[in-house]
Amino acid sequence: MRRMSLPGAVVLLHLSLALIASAQNSGSIAGTVVDQNGGMIAGAAVKAVDESKGIVIVETTTGIEGTFALQPLQPGTYTVRVSVKGMKELEHKGIVLDSRQVLGLGPLTMTVGAATESVTVEATVPLVETATSDHSAVIDSREVTEISMNGRDFQSLVRTLPGVISNDSSDFRLAFNNTDSFHVDGMQGSDNNVYLDGAINTDVGANDGQFTQLSMDAVGEFKLQTTNFAAEYGRNPGVLLAINTKSGGKQFHGTVWEFNRENGR
After folding, report:
1. What spatial distance separates the first Cα and last Cα of the chain, rounded to whole Å?
2. Would you identify the CATH topology of the domain 135-245?
């Protein structure tokens, strides 16, 4: 009987926990592939390509009714590529997927032609989310880094979202790991749930702080969800603040910043 060493078991445990957290943080892209007459196309190959990395993340085939679901997908910008014999390849570019979002693309229409030909469509984000009944708002990485704040605490941006009020005594916020200083839809601050990359980040003993506080430069985006939680987020009746860290890409990039405060003299 072969035995596994302790270091090997620890590595496997960490990998398993990472996969579980990744799945909890993921979303999906769904749609239906049809021909020019509106007929369903079964057996079409559908791929999700991460535009920042240039690689295929998930691929599947359409079912008997032409439907597909690309999952799990981490938050990011994707190209959905559809191909089937006797049709021109179809590409939907610039699809932005938020954390835990179920994004419905609706019908994707393919045209007759050689497989070497392609049709490119620039994606538009639906004004109303029809795939789920979630009530949520998202602050993306550009807003996190470019909106002026009095202090380098990204949670200050939570107060820009509908239904959020704060009991902070001033606009200067430097309580980095505090999570109960804002109230959503009239609920207590201790009802707030904070997740980091799919894993609980709230100190569940006191319900007033985070285990890990991120730098502004590490925050990719965060999502505030107020109603209709999935079962895994039902620890208490408050809001869900889901934070995602930035992921790598195929281009070198970084940030430079300066924090300066005048003394008023």
Report:
1. 76
2. Ferric Hydroxamate Uptake Protein; Chain A, domain 1 (2.170.130)
